[in-house]
Structures are given as C-alpha cells and as structure tokens.
C-alpha cells in the first residue's frame, strides 16, 4: 500500500506537512537516508500463510548530521531495517536511498563501493581481526578503498589519537579491554570519512562506566565531523543523547519521538 493511500504513522508523527514540531526539526536539514515502504519477507518458498513478515512497509527519512536511535523488542524488525539501511540485507519490496541513490539498483561492485566509502559500521562484538594490531584494523577499510599504505597508516594513527587509543596502536585485540576494542572499532568506522555510521548495540558488551565513555565519544564525533549516526540500541543513556528515536514494532513504525519528548526513568522509557 502506498503512502498516498494509507494515512501512515510516518505522516502522523513527523511529516512536516502534518506535524509542526517534527516539521520544525526537519526544516533546513538535508535527507541522507530515505526509506520508502520497505518490506522484508522470509520463507517465501513456503505457502503464503507461512511467510514471515519482518518488515511491513517502513517509510522514514534520516537527516545529515543527526543521531537516530532505533528501538524495538526482539523480533520487531529493528535489526532487519538496520541492515537494509546499511545495504547488508536487500528488502523484498520498497526502496532505500542513500544520498538519493537507490541502493537496490547498484550492482555488487557499486554496492561494495558505497558500503566502503559512504558507511562506517560499528558492531556489538567489535569484529576486529584478531591477528592484526589496532592500527592495522583501522587501516583495513582504507586498504580496501585503495589508499596508499603510508597515507593509510598515518591517518589510522590520527584516528587512534582521536578515539584515545594511540598508546595502544600496536596492541592486538586480545591485549585490549572491551572499551578499547570498541574505540578501535569506532576509529575503523571513520577510516574512509563516511557520511553515515551504523552502530549495532555499541555499548551492549561494556560495563556502565565504559559505555558512558563510548557514548560521549560518539556524540563528540557526531558534532565534530557532522556524521550521521544510526544506532540500534536498548541503552537508555544512548537514547538520552539521540536527536530522535524510531520505535519499530511488528515490522512497522510504531512512533518517532524527538529527544525532548522522551520520558526516561531509571530502568524504563515511557
């Protein structure tokens, strides 16, 4: 069903034409990610009644330089939508545009180029190469992008300094704490100066204090580099610093909230 024929949550919550507060937020901002009626169905080889609808037509615009948190219970479709934005999972129907490029129209080589150049990834489990040093892990995306080795090494060390692990640049992941490994992962995500950083539960494996340090670091990077951060998270502290929160339930947009509208209490969000 199209937007024009369905008075969707998208229109209710943040479309500038129907909601003045969200319109004020959107005014003057450039769209960097545009999702239109994104649906994802699994097990389509089975009878139709057994299909699994992970996404049921999500429409959303994400702006340059904002921090968007994606929330939802397990099985809500949050991770599926997150992966669709990052070009890691192709929707069954609908479109995802990054900088007005429909990523479904890209061939494998073009999609790999976009993921390497436009998007940085931060994973819950860090996903560092165990036999490489911190510096080498940060250099890796630049190597894939064809950056000369000396230039990549110099930039990687600068990124080490940016995230506060320059004194650990020559250590391998097994010699680093969880917080230090996540700092390496953040530096790696910035290696090719991406416009978007996708952060999947970036504080989930960290203790409270270290999690706060990582959150502060990500806010600092967003402000200094004007990068768009999209984070799938359950961390209430991370929600508190997000510009907006997208709530997904049953594969659909449940609501979109501005930061000032969030009512965060210890142990719960209302």
Question: What would your notes on this structure say?
Answer:
The protein starts with 8 loop residues before the first helix and ends with a strand. The protein contains 9 helices and 12 strands. α5 packs across α6. It is α/β, with parallel strands linked by helices.
Distance between the termini: 30 Å
Low-confidence stretches: 1-13
Strand content: 25-35%
* Overall helicity: 25-40%
**What structural category arises from helix and sheet content?**
alpha/beta
Query: Tally the helices: what do you get?
Result: 9
Mean pLDDT: 87
Q: Outline, from the CA principal axes? A: globular
The major sheet is characterized as: 6 strands, mixed
- What is the ordering of alpha helices and beta strands? HHEEEHEEHEHHHEHEHEEEE
Radius of gyration based on Cα positions: 19 Å
Identify the strand order in the major beta sheet. 6-7-8-3-9-10
Count of extended strands: 12
TL;DR?
The protein is α/β, with parallel strands linked by helices and 270 residues long.
Ordered list of secondary-structure elements with their pairings:
Elements: H1 9-13, H2 20-26, E1 31-42, E2 52-63, E3 67-71, H3 78-85, E4 93-98, E5 101-102, H4 108-117, E6 119-122, H5 134-144, H6 149-162, H7 178-189, E7 196-200, H8 208-225, E8 228-232, H9 236-240, E9 244-249, E10 252-258, E11 264-265, E12 268-269
Helix pairs in contact: 5-6, 5-7, 6-7, 7-8
């Amino acid at each position: 069903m199209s937007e024009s024929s369905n008075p969707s949550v998208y229109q209710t919550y943040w479309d500038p034409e129907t909601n003045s507060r969200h319109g004020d937020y959107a005014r003057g901002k450039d769209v960097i990610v545009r999702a239109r009626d994104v649906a994802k169905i699994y097990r389509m080889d089975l009878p139709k009644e057994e299909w699994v609808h992970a996404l049921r037509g999500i429409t959303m615009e994400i702006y340059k330089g904002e921090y968007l948190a994606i929330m939802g219970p397990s099985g809500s479709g949050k991770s599926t939508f997150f992966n669709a934005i990052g070009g890691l999972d192709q929707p069954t129907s609908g479109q995802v545009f990054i900088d007005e490029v429909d990523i479904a129209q890209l061939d494998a080589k073009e999609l790999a180029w976009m993921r390497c150049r436009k998007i940085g990834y931060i994973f819950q489990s860090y996903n560092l190469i165990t036999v490489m040093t911190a510096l080498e892990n940060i250099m890796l995306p630049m190597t894939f992008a064809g950056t000369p080795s000396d230039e990549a090494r110099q930039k990687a060390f600068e990124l080490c300094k940016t995230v506060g692990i320059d004194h650990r640049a020559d250590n391998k992941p097994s010699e680093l704490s969880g917080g230090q490994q996540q700092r390496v992962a953040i530096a790696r995500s910035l290696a090719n100066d991406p416009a978007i950083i996708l952060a999947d539960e970036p504080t989930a494996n960290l203790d409270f204090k270290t999690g706060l340090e990582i959150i502060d670091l990500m806010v600092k990077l967003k402000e200094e580099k004007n990068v768009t951060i999209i984070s799938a998270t359950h961390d209430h502290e991370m929600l508190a610093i997000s510009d907006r929160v997208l709530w997904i339930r049953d594969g659909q947009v449940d609501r979109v909230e501005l930061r000032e509208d969030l009512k965060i209490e210890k142990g719960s969000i209302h």
